[in-house]
Specification:
Blueprint (H helix, E strand, L loop, with lengths): L28 E6 L3 H16 L3 E3 L7 E6 L4 H17 L3 E5 L5 H7 L5 E2 L5 H11 L23 E5 L1 E2 L10 H5 L3 E2 L2 H13 L4 E5 L18 H9 L5 E4 L12 H6 L5 E3 L7 H7 L5 H14 L4 E8 L6 H14 L3 E6 L17 H24 L5 E9 L5 E5 L10 E3 L11 E9 L4 E5 L1
Parallel strand pairs: 1-2, 1-3, 3-4, 4-5, 6-9, 9-10, 11-12, 12-13, 16-18
Antiparallel strand pairs: 7-8, 14-15, 14-17, 15-16, 17-18
Length: 455
């Protein structure tokens, strides 16, 4: 199961900054390791863009850098361990390391393991990161040479980009500490989001991936607002730019029904990434989730009635404290009925500071693993059947890569980068370019991927 592992194979840290010019003589250079979710990736891009504007060069490896910034993830204990490992590797390879990101909210935890780090800052503390870089590696700009590309520094392929529309979250889910690390919901102004999106599209971006902690709630933190649900106007305006617009982290509030017609019109991709997390009402109550499970199936039916081709992706937690076999079976039955297209699943683990740690009846590790295996087996079977039904269909795809053998790795409108499947073209694809939109006929399907030929 290459695409639906636990956790999902989402590794933006494997990307490298795409800056075309070479580093000039005497130019101070900074490296970046960016761990965690796409929201952290956007933070990394903003930091690098600011540094590039100040005359710093961006190094693609440790050896070429005067210092390294490690943007950490601190949501799960496994993510914390990975962050500490990345910090240790950067210290061993470079020696001069500045730490930022979600784990930076626990500076003693970091310095206790790695006392040699130069500085520790918390999530989205851009100014403090810049101050730490200035102290470690003083800037030496050359105004006649150091010109910032109009699109800034990108850690993703140039044809798609993450577009963060807000920070923080107003929910109080017991297993999550995001509000403690990133604060309450603060939405970016509509004009600022549109200005960034327009610049990205002008620079060649063909797909905008809208991200936040709670995309449905965008703008509801504004006291004086004209629209009750500003996400509707934002989605409509983004959809007018001519790029693919993909919505992530959408809570299933009733007003999501008003987003779906935009997908029929073609302005927004028929794709919703919705974190359902579970289906049994007692489990959701212990999680303190904002959505009511008994209504989600009705909402799904309503979305599909308006837009039958809509793709639904979600993530779930199995083995949450107190989860009984009966509750887990309810989740299995719900998945049978919901028939979601894309599914990821996590085994519950304690997170320092989360209220769920204190809940009674924690589920044994072996039981969690067994439930995860059974859940993913069902999800895989659903995925395989849904993809098999696409054989013979003609559809648009976006090209991500064409390798030296002429095999093109593409994505359909149903596939987000890194977390969903791919469509492969293994004949006649030599002339395709990354970012190109091509029309293909699907001629083969697997568990998570498709194969096709140019139509």
């Amino acid at each position: 199961m290459p695409r639906m592992q636990n956790p999902p194979d989402l590794r933006p840290d494997l990307a490298r900054a795409r800056v075309s010019e070479t580093v000039r003589d005497g130019q101070p250079t900074i490296g970046m390791v960016s761990l965690g979710c796409p929201k952290a990736l956007v933070d990394s891009e903003r930091i690098l863009t600011r540094l590039r504007a100040e005359g710093y060069g961006i190094s693609a490896d440790y050896a070429g850098a005067d210092a390294v910034i490690v943007n950490t993830c601190g949501f799960l204990d496994s993510a914390k361990a990975e962050s500490l490992e990345a910090i240790g590797e950067a210290l061993a390879e470079n020696g001069r390391v500045i730490v930022t990101g979600c784990l930076g909210a626990e500076p003693d935890y970091i310095t206790g393991a790695h006392p040699r780090v130069l500085a520790v800052t918390g999530p989205h503390q851009y100014e403090q990161v810049l101050d730490a870089v200035h102290a470690a590696v003083p800037p030496a700009p050359d105004p006649f040479v150091d010109l910032l590309p109009a699109s800034g520094v990108s850690l993703t392929p140039r044809h798609y980009s993450y577009l963060k529309i807000s920070e923080g979250c107003n929910h109080t889910c017991k297993f999550c500490i995001i509000p403690d690390m990133r604060g309450r919901l603060v939405s970016r102004p509509h004009k600022a989001v549109m200005r960034e999106a327009e610049k990205l599209v002008e620079a060649g971006v063909r797909e905008l991936l809208v991200i936040s902690q709670d995309t449905s709630a965008y703008g509801t933190d504004w006291k004086d607002r004209d629209a009750k649900f500003p996400i509707l106007d934002l989605a409509r305006d983004l959809g007018s730019l001519g790029a693919w617009v993909r919505l992530h982290y959408v809570y299933p509030y009733p007003h999501v029904r008003d987003l779906v017609p935009l997908m029929v019109d073609g302005g927004v991709l028929p794709y919703l990434d919705i974190p359902f997390q579970h289906a049994h009402p007692d489990t959701l109550k212990r999680m303190a989730r904002p959505a009511a499970a008994e209504r989600t199936l009705d909402e799904i039916a309503a979305w599909r009635a308006v837009c039958p081709e809509i793709t639904l992706r979600s993530t779930f937690i199995v083995g949450y404290p107190g989860e009984t076999e009966a509750e887990f079976q309810t989740l299995q039955d719900w998945l049978d009925e919901a028939q979601l297209d894309r599914v990821g699943c996590f085994q519950y683990e304690n997170v320092k500071g989360a209220r769920s740690n204190a809940l009674p009846d924690h589920v044994p590790e072996q039981v969690k693993q067994d439930r995860w295996d059974r859940f993913m087996q069902k999800a895989q079977a659903i995925s395989e059947a849904k993809l098999a039904a696409k054989v013979g269909q003609t559809m648009e795809v976006i090209v991500d890569e064409v390798d030296e053998d002429g095999i093109a790795t593409c994505r359909t409108k149903a596939d987000a980068p890194e977390i969903d499947g791919n469509l492969f073209i293994d004949e006649g694809a030599e002339g395709l370019l990354p970012g190109q939109i091509a029309t293909v006929e699907v001629d083969e399907a697997g568990e998570y991927d498709l194969w096709g030929r140019l139509a």
